[in-house]
What we know:
It is a single chain. The chain is built from 14 helices and no strands. It is mainly alpha-helical. It has one domain (2-277): Orthogonal Bundle (ADP-ribosylglycohydrolase fold). It starts with a helix and ends with a helix. The mean pLDDT is 97.
Amino acid sequence: MLKEIAIADAYAAGFEFSNKMKIQNHNNLSRYVSHDLYGFEAKYTDDTQMSIAIAELLLANKAWTSENIASSFVTCFKRDQRKGYSKGFYGLLSQINTGAELLEKIKPDSTRNGAAMRSVPLGYLNSKIDVVHYATEQAKVTHDTPMGISSSCAVALVAHLGLVLNGSISDIGKFLGAEGFSGWDLNWHTEASVEAFDTISAALTCLQSTRSTKELLLNCVELGGDTDSVAAIAVGLATCFSEYNKDFPVSLFDLLDEPVYGLEFLSLLDSKLSNTFCK
Length: 279
């Protein structure tokens, strides 16, 4: 899960809000390309780092409180500061040192996709009640709005559908409707903005369009816009379903430029999540 999220995030980050010509010429999975704004290449962004924070807190077996959640976000950022966060949130994380400070200084009124992009690991939880509770509480730290919370819950529930309920991709629309988290545009065909509605609609549309992670990643990038968040969510969800063919090119794993918190670290986290929750 986390390993594939990182690959999708790092690859799609090279096309984040790029022009259509760049996407048309280079979206072929042959290599990573440079981020237009930050210039980094083959590195994952906040989508993966915050998913790591959620996964580590799940494995720590600590109380699921706002301060513990915020502390996990701060810890992950401080040990491995990287670009990709929104300018305001990056600045805030750079200025503080504790979760308590984050809660004190942040204005959690965003309707953007930040809460949803880190929710996939919550699908491992054993009950739908826990999934919704954990997804709601983690969203409130930064995105305490109906859209922020709903997007977080929707992503976590879809992951849960695949991981725990052994559901099918074709069940997603009906399942979210039954749980009260429907209303997404599942026929999304245009550029996805950073708004949660756009991102979730695009990710779920792409997720249902194929059963190959390779094709899925290509489709997410082809839409344009906030490609890394769409791809990280969609590919992360794809790994939760047995019907999906995990067929990323080996070169994307070989070329990922993450010497510290890279594939070995992510694979270990994935194993711990699976061993802890899939008993």
